[in-house]
Design goal:
Layout: E1 7-15, E2 21-26, E3 30-32, E4 35-37, H1 44-56, E5 58-71, E6 76-88, E7 98-102, H2 104-110, H3 116-124, E8 131-134
Parallel strand pairs: 1-6, 5-8
Antiparallel strand pairs: 1-4, 2-3, 2-7, 5-6
């Protein structure tokens, strides 16, 4: 038996009233949608609401659980959510060098890391819900 642990994370595509997507520019991966690791004893939904607030200053309401990405090599399960902005003010943090709301086209041109573009498109495409992607 292995001592291997799994990590559970959550990320959310957060839309404002104009339908723009909330993005952060992190110190390592560049532009991406907000999210992070769920803490022990925390529900996944509480964790993603906390992560978005910490990284962006924005309060959100979760609209829908959309699916899961499972990275087999790193043993990370990343849950994907759709949310809407309900308050707060944009602000940066130690995890976000910049934050803002962007059109889908702008977001797709800013994001360069791994499969984050794919995740956004899957989250926004209700016909694919729920999804499970392992790699």
């Amino acid at each position: 038996m292995s001592n291997r642990k799994h990590s559970l994370s959550a990320g959310a595509v957060v839309l404002n009233e104009e339908g723009k997507i909330l993005l952060i520019r992190g110190p390592c991966r560049g532009w991406e949608f907000p999210g992070g690791v769920i803490e022990i004893g925390e529900t996944i939904s509480d964790g993603i609401i906390r992560e978005v607030k910490e990284e962006t200053g924005i309060d959100i309401e979760l609209i829908k659980f959309c699916g899961i990405y499972h990275n087999l090599n790193s043993s990370v399960c990343a849950t994907c959510w759709l949310g809407k902005s309900i308050g707060g003010e944009l602000q940066t943090s130690s995890e976000s060098l910049d934050v803002g709301f962007f059109s889908i086209e702008e977001a797709m041109s800013l994001i360069t890391w791994s499969n984050f573009k794919e995740r956004i498109l899957k989250i926004l495409n209700e016909e694919e819900h729920p999804f499970y992607v392992s790699f």
